[in-house]
Write a structure and sequence with these properties.
Layout: E1 2-6, E2 9-11, E3 32-34, H1 36-51, E4 56-62, H2 68-77, E5 81-85, H3 95-108, E6 114-118, H4 129-137, E7 141-150, E8 154-161, E9 164-171, E10 174-178, H5 190-198, E11 203-204, H6 206-209, H7 247-258
Parallel strand pairs: 1-4, 1-6, 4-5, 5-11, 6-10, 7-10
Antiparallel strand pairs: 2-3, 7-8, 8-9
Helix pairs in contact: 2-5, 3-4
Length: about 260
């Protein structure tokens, strides 16, 4: 069985920055992490690998060259190899353009049985990309998955739904987007780090994928961030300090009368 795990490098919670002109998230900062829910997905793939024979895990990511660090970290945790999709032509892609690119990148890795990814990323919070990737690959998708039972001819997924959960059997190949209940995240090991250092992870651009340039980046993104602004407080605070007299109370009562509260 071949499992593709999608990982995304996202800014730390306190370091999210947006380009005020294009509305695109700035991803060149040093304070970046693997999307937490993707880590849960990776942990589930590793669990399957450790409990079933002949399972390989390929990590796929789309991002700047610095995203190679996320792939190497995933390999150090237990994945086998990876692929980084990177190029200036992909900058500014919305979820639709991103899904097209990642789907093309997955095809480059060859036949697969299952794709696992987090249900959403902490930077965009859209939860749209996974299902779109499945659409472009023409495979079934199951979302909000909290448990997986691997069978010879498919998997039984436990989906979290409003008011409870449901179980669905799906045949291979398929895509599942998982929530945090799927598996506890793991940690890189010393042997894993040595392996990650030795593994040659290829980096591909659109020259290898062969997509229409009009479908990439900002040009190929039908959804746009129109405006970015920081909320401004319009309140004026009046501070009345106790001074041993009735003056602060008189000022408060006068204010309430002016506002027609009393």
């Amino acid at each position: 069985m071949k499992i593709i795990v999608l990982v995304k490098q996202v800014p730390g919670t306190d370091s999210v920055k947006l380009d005020p002109i294009t509305g695109v998230m700035v991803r060149t900062g040093k304070d970046v992490i693997i999307n937490p829910l993707d880590e849960n997905g990776l942990a589930e793939a590793i669990r399957i690998k450790n409990t079933h024979p002949d399972v390989t895990i390929t990590v796929v990511s789309m991002g700047p060259p610095s995203a190679m660090k996320a792939i190497k970290e995933a390999i150090a945790t237990g994945a086998d190899d990876g692929l980084l999709i990177s190029g200036r032509e992909f900058a500014g892609s919305d979820t639709i353009a991103t899904a097209k690119v990642i789907a093309a990148g997955i095809k480059k890795t060859g036949p697969f049985d299952m794709i696992i990814c987090g249900e959403r990323a902490t930077d965009g919070e859209t939860g749209q990309t996974a299902a779109m990737i499945a659409h472009y690959l023409n495979i079934p998708a199951q979302t909000y998955v909290s448990a997986l039972e691997v069978l010879e001819d498919g998997v039984i997924v436990k989906r979290t739904v409003e008011g409870g959960f449901e179980r669905v059997k799906v045949t291979y190949p398929l895509l599942v987007s998982v929530n945090k209940d799927i598996s506890d995240t793991g940690f890189p090991t010393l042997s894993g780090k040595l392996k990650a250092k030795a593994v040659d992870v290829p980096m591909v651009a659109n020259a290898e994928l062969g997509l229409d340039k009009g479908e990439l980046g900002l040009t190929g993104s039908p959804t746009r961030v129109v405006k970015i602004f920081s909320p401004k407080l319009s309140r004026d605070t009046i501070m009345a300090k106790a001074d041993g007299t009735t003056k602060p109370i008189d000022e408060l009562m006068s204010f309430l009368v002016q506002k027609d509260v009393l």
